[in-house]
Design brief:
Elements: H1 4-16, H2 19-26, H3 30-44, E1 49-52, E2 55-58, H4 60-85, E3 92-98, H5 106-117, E4 121-127, H6 130-138, E5 144-149, E6 156-165, E7 167-169, E8 180-181, H7 182-187, E9 189-192, H8 198-209, E10 215-219, H9 223-231, E11 237-239, E12 256-259, E13 263-271, H10 278-298, E14 303-306, E15 317-319
Parallel strand pairs: 3-4, 3-5, 8-12, 9-10
Antiparallel strand pairs: 1-2, 5-13, 6-13, 6-14, 7-11, 7-12, 14-15
Helix pairs in contact: 1-2, 1-3, 1-4, 5-10
Length: 321
């Protein structure tokens, strides 16, 4: 029968890339690891590792086993916290991925609020792009993710929070400060993030639907670098951001709304395969509250709040500005 040690040894060997390095890492004799892997291959009836002078790598079957075994082992490591969470007390470690596209101070502000409101929760924050966060949630490296989505794929449990309209961002000298038509946008020199990127996906779909080909002069995958290129007047860019007050300097023009509107959706996602522990649910609820409060305080342009049904007194969708 397959046992914990079989999966543990196999995952360790794949991650180390060799039997000897795995033996050193997990402090088990190399012959014992080899024996357990051989037993695992015999039980499954397939070859799991390709061996060479440079080390080992998984076969196609081994890659499947590695992915599933990693998820099982991570879930086992989370089990004590999940059991403790059954007491109703929010306690344990929660791993949250967050995109800081909208508010650059959001990660710090939320960590401070979480510490004050949930003192027994240890929050581990990862700030990255939405595709990376979604991949890490799928692979159970993160419990929650605050992401931008173009389409709401059924592979996640989610709370859609709001829709954010896309805006053209240009140098002050080039900006007209008024809505820009999609056809005009396609003719402008554009600095866009490369795919996969939720903003780029939504924009490319809008161009394709209108049978337009955008004039992309540069691809940049970091928002700060995109803004630097816009400031250098290399071209304009499109961001899910209608308020630039958190960016220093006065060389950027007023964000120009795209017509017809193009939107991305901001959601809090988690794995659809495993229920959240009590601590993760508490963090999710606190994050939802923070996002809603921030949107109302800033009256962020181009935002439509999507009510996830927490309060019957609110309308299903509310346009903030």
């Amino acid at each position: 029968m397959m046992q914990y040690r079989h999966l543990h040894y196999f995952v360790s060997v794949v991650e180390a890339g060799s039997f000897s390095r795995a033996a050193s890492t997990i402090h088990v004799a190399q012959p014992a690891i080899s024996q357990q892997i051989a037993q695992l291959e015999e039980q499954l009836g397939v070859s799991l590792l390709l061996r060479s002078a440079r080390g080992v790598r998984p076969t196609a079957a081994g890659e499947v086993l590695y992915r599933e075994a990693s998820a099982i082992l991570k879930r086992l490591h989370q089990l004590p916290g999940i059991v403790r969470s059954g007491t109703g007390i929010a306690k344990g470690t929660v791993r949250l991925g967050m995109s800081s596209t909208f508010v650059t101070t959001a990660p710090t502000a939320f960590m401070q609020q979480c510490k004050a409101s949930l003192p027994d929760v240890v929050l581990r924050m990862a700030v990255s792009d939405s595709p990376t966060i979604k991949r890490r949630v799928t692979e159970h490296e993160l419990d929650l993710g605050l992401v931008l989505e173009d389409e709401l794929a059924p592979t996640f449990a989610r709370i859609p929070l709001f829709r954010q309209r896309l805006f053209l961002i240009r140098h002050q000298a080039a900006s007209k400060g008024k809505p820009v038509q999609l056809a005009e946008l396609a003719s402008l020199p554009l600095i866009l993030p490369p795919s996969p990127n939720m903003t780029r996906t939504a924009l490319d779909r809008a161009f394709a639907t209108a049978k337009l080909t955008p004039n992309v002069v540069m691809e940049v995958d970091v928002v700060a670098n995109i803004i630097a290129a816009v400031r250098a007047d290399v071209g304009g860019s499109v961001l899910p951001k209608g308020d630039l007050s958190d960016m220093s300097g006065d060389d950027l023009g007023e964000p120009e709304a795209i017509e017809p509107p193009v939107y991305v959706t901001c959601s809090i996602i988690s794995s659809c395969n495993f229920p959240l522990a009590n601590a993760a649910e508490a963090v999710r609820d606190l994050l939802t509250q923070l996002v809603e409060t921030t949107l109302h305080q800033t009256q962020a342009p181009g935002v439509e709040w999507i009510n996830p049904g927490r309060a019957e007194s609110r309308n299903n969708t509310r346009t903030l500005r």
